[in-house]
Design a protein that fits this description.
Elements lengths: L10 E4 L4 E5 L2 E14 L2 E15 L2 E2 L2 H7 L5 H19 L5 E6 L7 H18 L6 E5 L7 H13 L3 E7 L3 H10 L3 E4 L1 H8 L2 H16 L3 E4 L5 H10 L3 E2 L8 E2 L12 E3 L21 E3 L2 E3 L2
Parallel strand pairs: 4-6, 6-7, 7-8, 8-9, 9-10, 10-11
Antiparallel strand pairs: 1-2, 1-14, 2-3, 3-4, 3-11, 3-12, 4-5, 4-13, 14-15
Helix pairs in contact: 2-3, 3-4, 6-7
């Protein structure tokens, strides 16, 4: 599959309203993981992160391995394809009030013209999916961009289209602090490994709490990701963080998800959440059901 191939020709529409993608020998599916917000001792779903799940010959493959095997020249097209899948599936499967986190690799946007085209295409997909751009949170990943100027221009272009900005994997290194100062994000997602290290001592938790408070005082919302244990969830609540994400709360689900029925009514006690049953991260064999590709029936 060449990077010049139309995104539309890489997407298969299914009768249940969901979409999957085709990239060479891979079938690509969207999974969504909820992000929960604290509200007076309760947790409710506030957002979802779109995650790609690759399959080959019906068998699930590692997403990291999939991206590592993609030629550099094809990364821009694959980025666009995965975002398109997430947005189409979010429109079909997720509560309409929830925010949607999608990843952007700044290294593939080497000049403004490329960024502008990507954003035009994204607006078309949002229109088709019935998604308000204000629901979209663009996670800027750690990959280096062609230049700082290009990165800042790209982020401003995202803002100009009504999207919110999130900085991913914050770990308080100098480079992370500079990213926050320069990009002025709406949301900061904390690195899971860094969070776990700090939570293991009183001094570490105090630093974590002070960092959260500093961001929140600036109007920047905060997310702890990778929360896998009940004790981590309790300390997250004590730290004052806005939102939490992790397996102790809910695992990613392939589209179509069961999350539409929850919406904002899915509220649980934060103190008892570790006892709740989490939805498994499914890895079913993609079915051979009839599908639609832009109005045409196709078979896979």
């Amino acid at each position: 599959m060449k990077s010049g191939t139309s995104i539309g020709r890489s997407i298969i529409r299914h009768d249940d309203g969901t979409s999957s993608g085709v990239w060479g020998t891979y079938t690509l599916q969207s999974a969504f993981q909820p992000i929960f917000a604290f509200n007076e001792g309760k947790l409710s779903i506030a957002a979802f992160e779109g995650l790609i799940r690759p399959f080959r010959d019906g068998e699930p493959q590692s997403p990291m391995k999939f991206f590592r095997t993609c030629p550099a020249a094809d990364r821009l097209h694959i980025e666009a394809l995965t975002r398109t899948l997430h947005l189409l599936n979010a429109g079909a499967c997720l509560p309409r009030e929830a925010s949607i986190f999608v990843n952007f690799d700044p290294s593939v946007f080497t000049d403004r013209a490329i960024a502008d085209k990507a954003l035009r295409d994204m607006r078309l997909v949002l229109h088709e999916s019935g998604i308000d751009p204000r629901r979209i949170v663009c996670e800027v990943t750690e990959q280096k961009s062609a230049s700082q100027e290009t990165l800042y221009g790209f982020v401003e272009a995202l803002r100009g289209n009504g999207f919110r900005i999130a900085v991913d994997d914050y770990g308080a290194d100098d480079s992370d602090i500079n990213r926050i100062k320069e990009l002025k994000p709406d949301i900061v997602k904390f690195d899971a490994h860094w969070i776990t290290q700090l939570m293991e001592s009183g001094a570490g938790l105090a630093l974590l709490t002070a960092t959260v408070r500093n961001f929140e005082d600036q109007g920047i919302r905060t997310v702890f990701e990778g929360i896998e244990e009940g004790w981590q969830l309790e300390l997250a609540e004590k730290s004052g963080v806005s939102m939490v994400q992790g397996y102790v709360l809910a695992r990613p689900e392939l589209a179509p998800t069961s999350f539409r029925v929850f919406g904002k009514n899915m509220q649980v006690s934060a103190a008892n959440e570790s006892k709740a049953t989490a939805a498994a991260d499914p890895a079913p064999v993609p079915s051979a059901r009839p599908a639609k590709a832009f109005g045409r029936k196709v078979t896979r």
